[in-house]
Amino acid sequence: MALLNVSVSIKIPQKPPLSLPKPLLLPNPQLLPLYPHRHSTHQQLACTSTKQPLQEFAKTSFLALLSATLFFADPALAFKGGGPYGAEVTRGQDLTGKDFSGKTLIKQDFKTSILRQANFKGAKLLGASFFDADLTGADLSDADLRGADFSLANVTKVNLSNANLEGALATGNTSFKGSNITGADFTDVPLRDDQREYLCKIADGVNPTTGNSTRETLLCN
Question: What predicted TM-score, i.e. pTM, was given to this entire model?
Answer without folding.
Answer: 0.62
